[in-house]
Specification:
84 residues; mainly alpha; 2 domains; elongated
Length: 84
């Protein structure tokens, strides 16, 4: 599938004539657009029961420690969901 040309001659000329501040702003905008698109397309399939059983199978992880680990995981997942 041919990729769409993103850098046209007109855009190339504009970029060449930018000062440092304009270039930084443009690059930040491109970065933000990419980050938002990546987050929109990100899909995490996390089976908490399977994760719990696999962590619990590690030698030295007892039930209390496993509960603490799972609580930390759940809290961090909730934090990242609220952050976006």
């Amino acid at each position: 599938m041919p990729k769409e040309t993103l850098l046209t001659r007109e855009l190339y000329r504009k970029i060449k004539s930018m000062d440092k501040a304009s270039m930084e702003q443009t690059l930040n905008n491109v970065y933000e657009m990419g980050a938002k698109e990546a987050l929109a397309n990100a899909e995490i399939d996390l089976d908490m029961d399977r994760l719990r059983s696999e962590i619990g199978a590690v030698n030295g992880i007892g039930e209390k420690r496993l509960d603490q680990i799972m609580e930390n995981i759940k809290r961090n997942i909730a934090y990242s969901d609220n952050k976006t």
